[in-house]
């Protein structure tokens, strides 16, 4: 049954636009964007300065290691990403993007300030261990409480900043005009450029200062950056277009499910009337059924009693009667879930490289020349450089050559890129596993904490991790962005971060299960602070096995939900 042709849509359509009407003479446009980009750049420089070297800081200054260390980093990283969901909800439903961004920036500043204090005040940390292979001086509970308070405030700040920054920048342009759309595209380019510059500065200069000069200075710098982030954002307040909060898509999804459950006995068929309700873009909404998917939730928009509408034609109870657009939003979200699950396994790989890869680097030969020590945190830069180099080669070299040879524009489609990324992930874990085996055996043979194997040997696995992101993660973000309606782009970003969050939590669970099982057998694979006493390569091979299962899942199931073009949302 085609609802468009066989059912009636309630004529109560409210012409509203989610795009703010910008007064370009006084607010919005590039006069506002410079402050927004400055806010994001300073925040990213600060946060990446911590993320890139947190493993090293907790290992060397808090005497942490083994499963407990990895749990802290995984849970914190997962929370930073997960809190983007409630952050997006609070922004859309209550505070608006300006206040959510401001409060998030302040929270991050306070959190980084606490982390800087832990570096500056020795009393806030345990005494350093002289022998890293036999350290019996763990931090006290109150010292961990101070550390966790700082990390918690940073996670809350990330939850407010991540889902709002790009969306708030987009609010400054009138995307109903050709000029506004062009300016928005330019804004995206400058945003990613500033993001990359901040990332490079953080992972090179600041990480080097932290590792080789002073942790205090290394954390004061990002704290100062966050202070500048808040200051510049406030200075630009008079230039911003601040859209009023109009309600959250996440809340709407819950309402649709609740309304559909309440009307579960309603029969959908010929002659039923659907409540059209307000439209996000001011156009008439239509409910399109495709592939008989989620027919049940359509009952949420069925008008069973004229008294469900007030005199203005609006729903009296949004928990019993939802609009057609709210139903479509739910269908959009559920339609991307099979492919979204694929991203979780990919992020499991990259998350573990950012943790265990750095721990490997700590216990490898890092000296070059007479006395130059390569900071272990620099290895994270390898993945990013690989990603950037591949994208540049693909766009500027490979595609033009292919166009000359074939005479037509030809690009790798989403299915191909996701599958290539998963294969790269499998190769990454195999390389990481065999390298860890060689690193550990060399260290045991020499009888030292630091293996004589050079840190250079880590380059292949970090490069493969970068290629995994370049293919799978980028394709996943593109998929989410393309498949979501324009008014749900912020939701797409939050859902993308959620996949990374779930990956971190799954890894935490997996690591603890492995540790518990292998500890009962007499030798834990991951429990010792000294990697030389663990069997980390087995864990890498398990993650590689997860990638194999992910490839099969995507190839034979999830790939059917990937379509290269989306016309009028009919693929959903």
Automatic annotation (TrEMBL):
Q: Which CDD domains match?
A: MFS_NPF1_2 (cd17416)
User: How is this protein situated with respect to the membrane?
Assistant: Multi-pass membrane protein
Q: Would you name any one GO CC term? A: membrane
Report the subcellular localization.
Answer: Membrane
Q: Where is the composition biased (Polar residues)?
A: 1-20
Among InterPro entries, the record links this protein to: MFS_trans_sf, POT_fam
Q: What is its main location?
A: membrane
- This chain's protein is named Major facilitator superfamily (MFS) profile domain-containing protein
Query: Which organism is this entry from?
Result: Brassica campestris (Field mustard)
């Amino acid at each position: 049954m085609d609802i468009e042709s066989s059912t009636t849509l309630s004529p109560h359509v409210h012409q509203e636009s989610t795009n703010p009407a910008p007064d370009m003479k006084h607010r919005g446009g590039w006069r506002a964007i410079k402050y927004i980009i400055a806010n994001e750049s300073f925040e990213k420089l600060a946060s990446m300065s911590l993320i890139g070297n947190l493993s090293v800081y907790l290992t060397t200054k808090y005497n942490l290691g083994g499963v407990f260390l990895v749990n802290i980093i995984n849970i914190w990283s997962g929370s930073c990403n997960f809190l983007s969901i409630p952050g997006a909800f609070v922004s859309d439903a209550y505070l608006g993007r300006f206040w959510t961004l401001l409060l998030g920036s302040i929270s991050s500043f306070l959190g980084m300030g606490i982390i800087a204090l832990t570096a500056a005040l020795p009393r806030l940390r345990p005494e350093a261990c002289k022998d890293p292979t036999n350290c019996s001086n763990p931090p006290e509970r109150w010292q961990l409480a101070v550390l966790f308070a700082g990390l918690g405030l940073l996670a809350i700040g990330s939850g407010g900043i991540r889902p709002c920054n790009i969306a708030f920048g987009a609010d400054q342009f009138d995307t109903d005009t050709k000029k506004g759309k062009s300016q928005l595209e330019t804004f995206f380019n400058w945003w990613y450029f500033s993001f990359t510059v901040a990332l490079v500065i953080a992972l090179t200069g600041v990480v080097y200062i932290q590792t080789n000069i002073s942790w205090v200075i290394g954390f004061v710098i990002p704290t100062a950056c966050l202070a500048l982030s808040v200051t510049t954002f406030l200075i630009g307040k008079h230039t911003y277009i601040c859209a009023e909060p109009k309600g959250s898509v996440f809340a709407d999804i819950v309402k649709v499910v609740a309304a559909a459950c309440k009307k579960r006995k309603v029969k959908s068929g010929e002659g039923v009337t659907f409540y059209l309700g307000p439209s996000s873009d001011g156009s008439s909404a239509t409910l399109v059924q495709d592939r008989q998917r989620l027919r049940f939730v359509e009952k949420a928009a069925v008008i069973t009693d004229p008294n469900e509408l007030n005199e203005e034609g609006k729903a009296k109870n949004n928990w019993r009667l939802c609009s057609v657009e709210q139903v479509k939003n739910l269908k959009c979200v559920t339609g991307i879930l099979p492919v979204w699950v694929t991203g979780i396994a990919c992020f499991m790989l990259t998350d573990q490289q950012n943790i265990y890869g750095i721990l490997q680097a700590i216990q490898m030969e890092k000296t070059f020349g007479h006395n130059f020590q390569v900071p272990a945190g620099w290895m994270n830069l390898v993945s990013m450089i690989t990603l950037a180099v591949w994208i540049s080669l693909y766009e500027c070299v490979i595609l033009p050559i292919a166009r000359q040879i074939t005479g037509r524009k030809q690009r790798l489609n989403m299915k191909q890129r996701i599958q290539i990324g998963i294969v790269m992930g499998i190769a990454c874990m195999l390389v990481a596993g065999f390298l860890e085996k060689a690193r550990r055996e060399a260290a045991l043979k020499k009888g030292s904490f630091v293996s004589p194997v050079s840190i250079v040997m880590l380059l292949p696995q970090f490069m493969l991790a970068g290629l995994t992101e370049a293919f799978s993660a980028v394709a996943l973000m593109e998929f989410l962005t393309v498949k979501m309606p324009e008014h749900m782009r912020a939701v797409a970003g939050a859902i993308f971060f959620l996949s990374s969050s779930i990956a971190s939590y799954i890894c935490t669970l997996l690591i603890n299960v492995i540790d518990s099982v292998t500890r009962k057998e007499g030798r834990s694979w991951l429990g010792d602070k000294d990697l030389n006493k663990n069997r980390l390569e087995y864990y890498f091979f398990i993650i590689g096995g997860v990638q194999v299962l992910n490839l099969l899942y995507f190839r034979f199931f999830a790939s059917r939900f990937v379509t290269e073009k989306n016309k009028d949302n009919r693929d959903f």
